[in-house]
Design brief:
mainly beta; 14-stranded antiparallel barrel; 14 strands; 49% strand
Length: 317
């Protein structure tokens, strides 16, 4: 009889035990992670459809990207693919993406998730652009909770080019509430400063309105980062920040190798401190491959120079 009770208890615990804080929004893209996640005011290419869709209008690019991410928290893995095209003569930019996630709970029960999205953005003059991303999510196995197995939600964002060197961004994410901490409602905002065409410095704030499934925390965190392009062939990134849901501070870094037809990106992020004895420090590693479609077809270097900049063309970072 005791054995039966133990089996029943174990089965209930596997289903009902709260999961360590882990959300689809943990995947911000390889290059954004290398800057500590601080790219909302200067979100180019794949970073735009994940963090601020209005950023697609900041540069004329046609990129295809494939990414892999690993996080030591619950042995999580991400597979991600995207296409972004902002070369239209009408200035309408569009992007599409798909992300697959897998992980394991404390009892080794696997969880899976699927996310697909379509983004559109349009500039209004030289200084303002708006963008939206419609998203479909499905949570499977231990990722699903009784109140939510996914659904349809959306992001909306705006970017203001105050000057050629300053950019402001604001975006609301998951504005339709899916009632789960794995798809939290967020409001984020950022400032980007470009002292040189090859240097970007960014500061972001992220306010979470959805309570974490485990810590039940919510609040405002910050992240800051920088990027330096060297000879249009290498990009170096660094950054860090604070996550209020998990109460962790982290540092990050990244590196890219660029050519006329594509790029290889590496990003690393690691926790510096955690507030709970049972919580291990998390390590995130990401790798992405990018193809510059226009340059691959013509043999020319892609034009990622901001429309309001008079500098020479640079590969998209």
């Amino acid at each position: 009889m005791r054995a039966v009770r133990f089996v029943v208890f174990l089965a209930f615990a596997v289903v009902a035990l709260p999961r360590v804080g882990f959300a689809f929004d943990d995947f911000e893209g390889t290059r954004a992670q290398g800057m500590g996640g601080a790219t909302r005011a200067w979100a180019l290419g794949d970073s735009a459809i994940l963090l601020n869709p209005s950023g697609m209008t900041l540069a004329k690019v046609y990129n295809v990207e494939a990414s892999y991410g690993y996080t030591s928290r619950m042995s999580g893995q991400f597979l991600h693919a995207s296409i972004v095209d902002s070369t239209s003569a009408s200035n309408l930019a569009a992007g599409a993406y798909y992300t697959y996630r897998s992980d394991e709970s404390s009892f080794g029960v696997p969880g899976h998730g699927h996310e697909a999205g379509l983004s559109l953005a349009l500039p209004f003059g030289r200084y303002l652009s708006f963008g939206v991303t419609g998203k479909w999510l499905r949570l499977v196995d231990s990722d699903a909770v009784p109140d939510s197995t996914g659904g349809i939600t959306f992001d909306a964002g705006a970017t203001v080019r105050a000057t050629d060197r300053f950019s402001l961004g604001v975006v609301g994410q998951n504005l339709r509430d899916l009632q789960t901490g794995q798809v939290p409602q967020l409001m984020s905002y950022g400032l980007a400063f470009l002292p040189l065409p090859t240097v970007t410095v960014a500061i972001d704030g992220v306010t979470t309105f959805t309570h974490d499934d485990v810590t039940h925390a919510r609040g405002t965190g910050f992240r800051a980062g920088g990027e330096w392009s060297i000879m249009q062939r290498v990009a170096v990134r660094t950054g860090g920040g604070y996550d209020p849901n998990l109460g962790v501070g982290y540092v990050a870094g990244g590196l890219s190798a660029l050519s006329e037809i594509g790029a290889v990106d590496l990003g690393v992020r690691g926790d510096v401190w955690t507030p709970y004895d049972w919580s291990r420090k998390n390590l995130w590693i990401g790798l992405s491959l990018r193809l510059f479609v226009g340059s691959a077809a013509s043999g020319d270097e892609p034009d990622a120079t901001p429309p309001s900049s008079s500098s020479s063309a640079l590969p998209p970072l």
